[in-house]
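Exercise 7 asks you to align residues with tokens for two separate proteins.
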Amino acid sequence: MTGPRLEMKNIRKEYFGNKVLKGVNITVEPGEIHAIVGENGAGKSTLMNIIFGMPVIQNTGGFKGKILFNGEPVLSPSPEKAMALGIGMVHQEFMLLPGFTVMENIKLNREPTRPNLWSRVLSKKLETLDIQRMRKDASAALDRLDLGIDEMLRVAGLPVGFMQFIEIARELDKDNLQLLVLDEPTAVLTESEADTLLETVKRLSEQGISILFITHRLDEVLKVADRITVLRDGEQVATMSPKEATVGKLAELMVGRKIQAVTWKDKCEKDMECPEPLLSIRNLHVEMPGEELHGVNLDVAPGEILGIGGLAGHGKIGIANGIMGLYPATGEIILNGKPVPLNNPIAALNSGMAFVSEDRRGIGLLLEDSIEMNIIVQAMQSQGKFLKRGKPAKGLHSESPYT
């Protein structure tokens, strides 16, 4: 094949008058790893949803612009058309069935069958699943990722890193895969797992598969990408090679201004005195399964961004979950000079703390409610805002006189 595998020309998209993509142009060559970077809300996931024809795009008015795949126009994109063309996508949120085995998830909707007595006499629809072939195919897809896992295990209970690889294995099992879209594939992975995935991405590109790689980890972009496109507020602000880029340059393009980190230590040296901590954590113990914490002490200064690193299972997630009262905790939390009660989410919210969970689907969002309700629900619960006095609504677990 000659020419680009994918061309997206002047792609524009609005959500109810809000312009989220403003004339984006992307070209991906055969076997190329093309990275898309940008802040949250820059339009990265919307662009990927357009490529894959996700229903949310058509249900909100569609998009403007042209998409060419292997030189041919793609009209009215849909997931079915995308898969038929050879486009696979691994979404930010897992699309696995926990009660099914690894094999069943990989082969879902593409299960091979074999004839039996009834199918020969009555109808081909009565054929039996060819379990041996399904196991063989699933095992081969897992082997391409160097993932030593039994294909007959149930997905429920597996580490999240395994689930991410299973999602990729499902796409690799498709015979005609030509373009693989990876939307934040390393966000839930440990550093070693992420390195393994990056090596896999490189191998796939060497086999001629084109990769669209979305990530916030700019060091990963510089390791694997052949080209990098930067989005900011829905606009394409740059496309460059890794040789032209640095982490600092990419970050500045993403936010639109020069970034200069100032630490608490810098402020102390400049002002000759250290400000009082905004938040003090003393002897914090948290009983969070898989992320237990044992006697952590931290101070956070006003305006300081404190990064907490560590491997999965080493407790870094337990810090936020513990101080916000989501798991049993002991210790002392001081915010603005005042103690914050532990094991009390309402008290934590009322103290002025907010929490964005890593588990958006399970903890962070009310998926069955509106965007409006998701935005105001904490203010309703902790501060009684947006409510009026009256008889409590049926089903509310609260003694509040508001409804």
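Second protein for Exercise 7:
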Amino acid sequence: MKQYVVDAFTDSVFHGNQAAVCVLEEWPEEDLMMNITRENNFSETAFTVREGDKWHLRWFTPGGEVDLCGHATLATSFVLFNYFEKEAEKLVFTTLSGDLIVTRKDGLLEMEFPAYDLKPVEVTDAMEDALGARPAEAYIARDLLCVMDHEDTVRNLAPDQEKLKGIGGLLVHVTARGSDADCVSRSFAPKLAIVEDPVCGSGHCHIIPYWADLLGKDELTAYQASKRGGTLYCRRDGDRIFLAGKAVLYSIDELFI
């Protein structure tokens, strides 16, 4: 089995977010996909199979399968555009979150995702205790979104991973207004056996609706302030979020399984 390792939301290796991509002719057993994912130990490993004019795409973390992942979708699109669909301008993926479309646009790969419907929730002492700083606001959808007053607070967080498991949401995203970008954020996912997701695409389906409303604009540049770092070029159109970025190939591997 061939596997591609791609750094997404960056134009240089060792930055952005790593994803492994396996392009298959048929689906292997789920146990095998989980074992490959755990062996890689990236935040995501993607598996895709062509089905007619579309590609069926599934995403796995070391903690299990998830319903949406932006950076692994970007990585998969990069692989397909460069090695399997060289003449294509658009790819359609069948996923647990419905059909997702990725388009080549102005030197970037742009993904269309559903926006999450954020509901405000009370800021609690448990949130402050887990994060090490008290959010100014908090919202819940699939994930918990915590808004901080200052960018430096987001950049300097050292949350307690065990305590994060006790607060709401599948993932926890922390965000603030940015100095060089419209917003900065970090994403933590101990419930999925991920300490920190370096650049989280699905997280920005929570983050961008918040900032688009607050800033009164639908086109934003977002920076994920993890150690690896990554930039997302985002726009909102109704209940859809468009995330664009670059990607770079790190390796092509042969799996002996």
